[in-house]
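Minutes, project check-in
Item: structure for the 104-residue chain
Input as provided by the requester:
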Amino acid sequence: MDRRIKASRTQEKRLAKEIGGTTIAGSGNGWAVKNDVRNATWSIECKTTSAARFSLTHRDLVNAETNALLDLRDMAFVIDMQDRTWVVLSKETFLRLIDREEDS
């Protein structure tokens, strides 16, 4: 198996376990559920790279957000890069999370 595919599947399985969710088989080529990992709240698009940079476009984010909204979930975009994991959220989602934290 191609090392990039293996790294991607490993990332998705690990994240699904961490959030109590599941991976979505064929998420990149199916017509129903699109993002890679989901639980009851989140629909997450995952990317991984061994490079020192990753190109994230507005279109990538809007597509992931649209797919999450169609699935009635919040969107996150997770990037594994250089032995770190980064999570990208919309400002609206971020502020909503902060409000929930302050209410607790």
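Outcome recorded: The chain has a mean pLDDT of 91.
No further action items on this chain.
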